Amino acid sequence: MGRDDMRAGDGDRKAVAEQLKSALDEGRLDLSEYDDRLQRTYAAKTYADLDGLLSDLPGTVPVQHSQIQPAAATAPAATPVQPGHSTGRQIAQWVGPYAGVVLVCSLIWLITSLSAGHLTYFWPVWMLIPLILGVFGQAFGGGGGRRDRKR
């Protein structure tokens, strides 16, 4: 009985699955081909079945040494927020655009009221409620979960 006829163990299947994952991460396999090969990996019974899954792939390189950077590594690092130091800046980042929405809604209300000849119900007040709650939440409630937390 040769190596090709020997039954493969779970550890062997896992090692092949990891090599296939590395090939996917490096862009040498597309997702559908990876899925097909992974299914055949876990269905393989012998070493010959497993060897056939990797025969057309060159030796895989660990993700840390590959030319392609993982998506998390290419994203700019977020600067940690110090409590109480930049709450005003956080508020200003979203209050400005949202206040613009409230202003546009108020102008629409004013135009419709003028065209109706009398003041109609001031419905833009409902747009102010989230704005007010958001300002208080950012100022007093810890930033609304936007701060980086230690993992």
Features:
single chain, 151 residues, mainly alpha, 0% strand, rod-shaped
Count of helix runs: 6
Strand elements, count: 0
Distance between the termini: 51 Å
Reported for the largest beta sheet, the result is:
none
Radius of gyration: 29 Å
What is the N-to-C order of secondary-structure elements (H for helix, E for strand)?
Answer: HHHHHH
The mean pLDDT is 76
Structure report:
This protein has helices at residues 10-25, 31-43, 47-54, 71-74, 87-116, 125-140. It is built from 6 helices and no strands. The relative contact order is 0.10. It has 151 residues and is mainly alpha-helical.
Write the layout of secondary structure elements.
Elements: H1 10-25, H2 31-43, H3 47-54, H4 71-74, H5 87-116, H6 125-140
